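$ ./design --mode recover --in tokens.txt
reading tokens...
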């Protein structure tokens, strides 16, 4: 935790937590959107589409974190461990929230890719997921967890 506080001039500020959450949101959104597009385009059932979206969100979330850690010279296996420690809780919360919202909006999953309802529901769900995950990331960073783990390797 001291390293985090030193590196960020005061620790777990809301700004640092927002940056960490935005980083997580980027990976989640790439995977979520890609999964929803694939599942919807192929006419998959909601459960299969959500499962694919969640799997891809974790994949892209971890991949984005690993990219930066690998660039810092960390070995692949260690970079994977860092990504898992840094992003698992954040991605899990984000995915739980955004998928619950998307599934909960009547007609959103069946609206189709050309529908404003589909894209508006997805954008709304990701925005709410950001707001819910942001204070969780702040709490974790203040304790040297979550995204703080990545900063030890920059």
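writing sequence...
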């Amino acid at each position: 935790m001291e390293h985090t506080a030193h590196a960020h001039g005061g620790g777990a500020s809301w700004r640092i937590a927002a940056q960490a959450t935005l980083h997580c949101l980027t990976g989640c959104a790439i995977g979520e959107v890609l999964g929803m597009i694939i599942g919807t385009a192929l006419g998959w059932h909601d459960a299969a589409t959500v499962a694919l979206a969640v799997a891809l969100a974790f994949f892209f979330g971890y991949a984005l974190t690993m990219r930066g850690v690998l660039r810092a010279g960390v070995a692949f296996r260690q970079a994977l461990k860092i990504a898992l420690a840094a992003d698992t809780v954040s991605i899990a919360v984000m995915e739980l929230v955004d998928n619950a919202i998307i599934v909960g909006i009547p007609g959103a999953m069946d609206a189709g890719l050309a529908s404003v309802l589909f894209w508006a529901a997805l954008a709304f769900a990701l925005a709410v997921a950001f707001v819910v995950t942001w204070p969780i990331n702040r709490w974790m960073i203040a304790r040297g967890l979550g995204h703080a783990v990545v900063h030890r390797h920059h």
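exit 0
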